[in-house]
């Protein structure tokens, strides 16, 4: 019997990436829902949506990700990243559904300066990180079958993201300033989508010692936003001068962690996942974008 899988946030980067991957997959039965099809306000809409439906796995890609806007839109960010996660977790617990919830490296304060492992203390610096952490914590309290996957700097060939923004700016301007002292790893949404599919189909996904755990996933390697931008322009042969600047000279409403590199050893070892290097992933994304 094919696993029946619900993916929320279908119109986001990760949701679209999963949909693109599974279009020809006959081993899994997917249902994709957008924000309009599954509204979280009021929360009772979530209960109504699940009535009469049967799923084996829910992949919760729905999230409020506007980091700076979250500083003035706390209630909306908290609704999507925390309260809706609580309701979905309660339903999954009641219906015995496996839940995969996507979280973020922004649950950390960036002062570790060595790759964060899953057990490291959390201390988010901004509203976005705080609401995502609240979602993690309530999910762990309810303890449905499933896992949390933290990721970072997600981009894709779809929608608004850092890569698409830099491509536009690089063609519009002769010179741009990019922060060089925030360090982490870009994540190609397609690679994260493949990792999620590997997890779902892995025999250990039903193992009681493995589920109800937190895992980290990003592409391999280390980069700053400056490094990321330089690589984008080099691959696309864009003649735009990129100047490195410090975070203190580029003030934003939300504080960002200066260091959010995450260790991926746990997810690689348990689910036998091979993770591509970030520059190789970027090159593949840029080719997909042209296609």
- Distinct helical segment count: 9
Instruction: Write out the strand line-up for the largest beta sheet, numbering strands in chain order.
Output: 2-1-3-4-5-10
Task: Quickly name the level 1 CATH class.
Answer: Alpha Beta
Gap between N and C termini, in Å? 35 Å
Main sheet overview: 6 strands, parallel
**What is the mean pLDDT?**
93
CATH topology: Rossmann fold
Protein name: dTDP-4-dehydrorhamnose reductase
Pathway: Carbohydrate biosynthesis; dTDP-L-rhamnose biosynthesis
EC number: 1.1.1.133
InterPro entries: dTDP_dehydrorham_reduct, NAD(P)-bd_dom_sf, RmlD-like-bd
Quick overview of this protein structure:
With 291 residues, this protein is α/β, with parallel strands linked by helices. 38% of the residues lie in helices and 18% in strands.
Give an account of the 3D structure.
- The chain has 291 residues and is of the alpha/beta class.
- The two termini are 35 Å apart.
- A six-stranded parallel sheet has the order 2-1-3-4-5-10, sandwiched between helices. A two-stranded parallel sheet has the order 6-9. The chain has a two-stranded parallel sheet with strand order 7-12.
- The protein contains nine helices and twelve strands.
- It has helices spanning 13-22, 44-50, 74-95, 127-142, 162-172, 189-201, 225-236, 265-271, 278-290; strands spanning 3-8, 28-33, 57-60, 98-104, 146-151, 154-155, 175-179, 183-184, 187-188, 213-216, 223-224, 241-245.
- α3 links the parallel β3 and β4 (98-104).
- α7 crosses α9 (278-290).
- The protein has a single domain, classed as NAD(P)-binding Rossmann-like Domain (Rossmann fold), CATH 3.40.50.720.
- Its EC number is 1.1.1.133.
């Amino acid at each position: 019997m094919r696993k029946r899988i619900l993916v929320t946030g279908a119109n986001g980067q990760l949701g679209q990436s999963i949909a693109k991957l599974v279009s020809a997959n006959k081993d899994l039965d997917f249902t994709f829902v957008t924000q309009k099809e599954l509204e979280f306000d009021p929360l009772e809409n979530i209960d109504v949506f699940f009535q009469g439906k049967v799923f084996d796995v829910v992949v919760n890609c729905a999230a409020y990700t506007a980091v700076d806007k979250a500083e003035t839109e706390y209630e909306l960010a908290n609704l999507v990243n925390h309260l809706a996660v609580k309701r979905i977790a309660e339903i999954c617990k009641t219906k015995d559904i496996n839940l995969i919830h996507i979280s973020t490296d922004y649950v950390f304060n960036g002062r570790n300066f060595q790759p964060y492992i899953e057990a490291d203390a959390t201390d988010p610096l901004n509203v976005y990180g705080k609401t995502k952490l609240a979602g993690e914590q309530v999910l762990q309290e309810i303890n449905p079958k499933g896992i949390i996957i933290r990721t970072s700097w997600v981009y894709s060939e779809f929608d608004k993201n850092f890569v698409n923004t830099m491509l536009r700016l690089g063609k519009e301007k002769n010179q741009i300033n990019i922060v060089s002292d925030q360090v982490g790893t870009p994540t190609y949404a397609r690679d994260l989508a493949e990792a999620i599919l590997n997890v779902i189909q892995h025999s250990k996904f039903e193992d009681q010692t493995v589920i109800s755990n937190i895992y980290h996933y990003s592409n391999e390697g280390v980069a700053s936003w400056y490094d990321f931008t330089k690589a984008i322009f080099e691959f696309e042969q864009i003649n735009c001068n990129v100047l490195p600047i410090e975070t203190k000279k580029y003030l934003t409403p939300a504080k960002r962690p200066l260091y959010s590199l995450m260790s991926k050893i746990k997810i690689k070892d348990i689910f036998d996942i091979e993770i591509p290097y970030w520059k190789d992933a970027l090159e593949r994304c840029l080719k997909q974008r042209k296609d």
